[in-house]
Amino acid sequence: MKKFLCLPLLFFIIFISGCYTIPPATIDKSNALQTAKTAYVVINPLVIGTFQNLIYANLQRRGIETTVGPMSDKPSDVDIYVTYVAYHSWDMAMYLKSYTITIYDNKNNTVIATDSFSTGFFHDFANSQKVTNMLMGNMFK
User: Fold this and answer.
1) Does some domain include residue 11?
2) What's 89-138 look like in SS3?
3) Are 131 and 42 in contact, with CB atoms under 8 Å apart?
4) Which residue would you say has higher pLDDT here, 41 or 86?
5) pLDDT for the residue numbered 71
6) Distant-in-sequence, close-in-space partners of 114: CB < 8 Å, separation ≥ 6
7) Are 32 and 79 in contact (CB under 8 A)?
8) How many domains does the chain have?
9) Does residue 20 carry a pLDDT above 70?
10) Domain span at 50
11) Is residue 4 part of a domain?
């Protein structure tokens, strides 16, 4: 009888808890990310929010001199550049559904690190700054 009482409780806990996924970051074996001194954050005009500012602040805290702007203004002399894609959805309020940050080597335009966040059917209302810091932290390990 106890098993039958625990099963509905388990489903209820899963239902009310927020579920999200952050797979391990993909990081190139070159040392380009750890040796970067300058960066450029490419503004994604299709994304709602100020994700470029969150990424900018995170890079600055890491001692990387960073500028922000459109892809057309990307300087040729920065070490790395960063792109991002974020999707929002509605559920009583707008929430962050998925978010991917990709870092490129500016010399050869190859991906040197990427990490992503996504929510499932049961989700919480993730804080964009915390998610940005978590994704960037995973890539700069």
Assistant:
1) no
2) EEECEEEEEEEEEEEEECCCCEEEEEEEEEECCCCCCCCHHHHHHHHHHH
3) no
4) 41
5) 97
6) 25, 26, 100, 101, 102, 103, 139
7) yes
8) 1
9) no
10) 18-139
11) no
Residue 12 located in a structural domain: no
Please count the CA atoms within 13 angstroms of the CA of 117 that sit on its side-chain side. Answer: 29
Mean pLDDT of 89-117: 86
| Residue 125, pLDDT score | 57
Fill in the amino acid letter for 137: G
* DSSP, res 140: T
Tracing tokens 């380009």 back to the chain, one arrives at 32
* Mean pLDDT, the chain, integer: 82
- Cα 74 to its chain centre, rounded Å, is 21
pLDDT at 28: 78
CA 11 to chain CA centroid, nearest Å: 29
- Could you read off the pLDDT of 21-71 as tens digits, one per residue? 556 677 877 788 999 999 999 999 988 778 999 999 999 999 999 999 999
Residue 3 located in a structural domain: no
Yes or no: say if 80 and 97 are a contact pair by the CB < 8 Å rule.
no
pTM given for the model:
0.80
The CATH code of the domain that includes 24 is 3.40.50
Q: How far apart are CA 23 and CA 36, in angstroms?
A: 24
